[in-house]
Design a protein that fits this description.
The complex is a heterodimer of chains A (282) and B (359). Chain A is mostly helical and 282 residues long. Helix content of chain A is 71%, strand content 0%. Chain A folds into two domains: 85 residues, no CATH class; 153 residues, MetI-like fold. In chain A, helix 4 crosses helix 10 and helix 4 crosses helix 12. The two termini of chain A are 39 Å apart. Chain B is α+β, with helices and mostly antiparallel strands. The longest helix of chain B is centred in the middle third of the chain and has 22 residues. Classes of the chains: A mainly alpha (282), B alpha+beta (359). At the A-B interface, helix 8 of A face strand 6, helix 2 and helix 4 of B.
Amino acid sequence: MSLFYSTLKYLAVTLWSMFVIAPFLWALTTSFKDFQSVTSGATYIPWVDFEPTLDGWRSLFKSPAQGGIAIVEPFFNSIIVTAAGSGISIILGTLAAYSLSRFTFRVGPIRNGDITFFFISQRIMPPVVLSIPFFIMLGKLGLLDTLFGLVLVYVVLLMPIAVWIMVDFFNKVPLEIDETALIDGCNPYQAFFKVVLPNSVPGIIVAGMFCMIFGWTDFFFAFILTFTEVQLLPVAIVALNSSITPWWSLSAAALFSVAPLVVVAFVVERYLSKGNLSGALK
Amino acid sequence: MSLIASNLSIKHEKNFHLNDVSFSMSKGEIYTIIGRTLAGKTTLLKTIAGLISPDSGGLTFDGHDFGSIPVWKREIAMVYQQFINYPHLTVYQNVAFPLKQRGIQKTEINRRVITALSQVGLEGFGDRKIQALSGGQQQRVALARSLVKEAKIVLLDEPLVNLDYKLREQLREEFQGIFDTKASEDSILIYSSTDPVEAMQLGGQILVMDEGRIIQQASAKEIYENPISTKVSQITNDPAMNLFDGRIQDGCIVLSPEIKFDLPSHFNGLPQGDFTFGLRAAAISLDDNGFPFSVELSEISGSETFLHVRHEGLKIVGLLNLVQNFSVGEKVSVRFDTKHLYAFAPDGRLKSSPYGGLQ
């Protein structure tokens, strides 16, 4: 029976891996094709099925006038908006989460749990509901189609994720650590910055990862709140899809857009395994 | 130097966590707060530390109002029952942390940290990460951090409760050694525990807590000999003192129609009437001329046996030397050593003890 279940388990894992990896493989092979190879039917193995070319990748770094697809500027725009939005969200979210975890707030019938839910509820609403007030507010502030406007919106969108993850994380950090820091001579701010924060790095990294993924992959708000001046990467990639889609360039751009997240995941993974609270309270 | 609490009370919803707690503690003494879980021990320690503010009442230390001093400025050290350390720091950095906070010079920090680590038997562990230590070693680090401060008040909140039996015994002895010498000369040491054996071994003054109140404060010897109520007798004995209702009638103690015995001499002044009698497990023995009981449970603990026996509604526990085997329902003859019998009034107050005579 165990052999049967073991086989079943590996079969399921293999199928799932294929399901996950297949689109990447398709995009990878397509990014090395040209018009001829793409239109000549299903081909997968370079040098056997088709002759690989770097045209798709080269087009990423050329201007439209040179036959490129102008993806570098949207790429850096996305980096600025995602990094700034995630960074600010993590800073504000961590502070908010710490206070929600450690202090008791009571305003009429509203308690800490309600405030936490208020943050999260912004992610429960359909994006289109939020898009209208965002559009009107940014318009009135003259921030439509600007990087600063997008950063503000992304802070609003990403901070609930940071608060949600960090409240849960701080709830698991024993209160006695804060108390010990106070007894050892820290005022409440020092206790947070010298003791609680250094021990919260894993939680901050997880929250940061989620913020970056949500920020980096957002298409809806990037599309609604920008026109001609500022373009983010997801919008630029989708804009390539037309009646004569350059699939090789589109695939290269798609892989190019995933690269930063893969790099971040690899870097962050090391920190995740390093920092933990196992020595705080055994 | 003294720490004085006056009428400390903390109420949460309808429950008192501290209820009109008053005491006076002097330096150079070890004070043990004993009580069951939720008796208010940790709340009292946290109130002394300043982590919890009392709803009413106050604390003074050396004649100054302690309540107005924030936690981080109080001359206090505390060790928790969980092994609380800073996981991002090494052992050395953990112990040095409170001294760095005070802005003490590096050379002095180094001297004091090395001394503290050697006091707790952790020489050579300075560079290790906290996660790399065993539970006992982690608690020693916490202890070293409390020693290094040379605090005026040292609070130990059941520091041994999460350790295994052997380590607990070992650390308890070391604690006594450490605190009997330097620390306790200059400090007030307050140790909380649920374990009567631990409290009695530490000696010093004992404060017995129940439902947020201090129900007796006296020396360990006095608490052992004259527990002022049935509650104190239950909290400060392990196993809890056997309590059974009966009456004094015609020079005899009558527990049931079959169980009667002569009045011990220290009960001579007691009037006839109903009482609750108390007898420690060690004063119960098996004897062919004893009263008939049947075995309900027999527990072997180390080299001793706890024997739970019953006679109709009367249930008692005896502590027998050596490992002895009994089967459930087995008939045994039980003897009461009446020289060690206590008498409590029906409301629980001590009326007569074998050590203090008539109260």
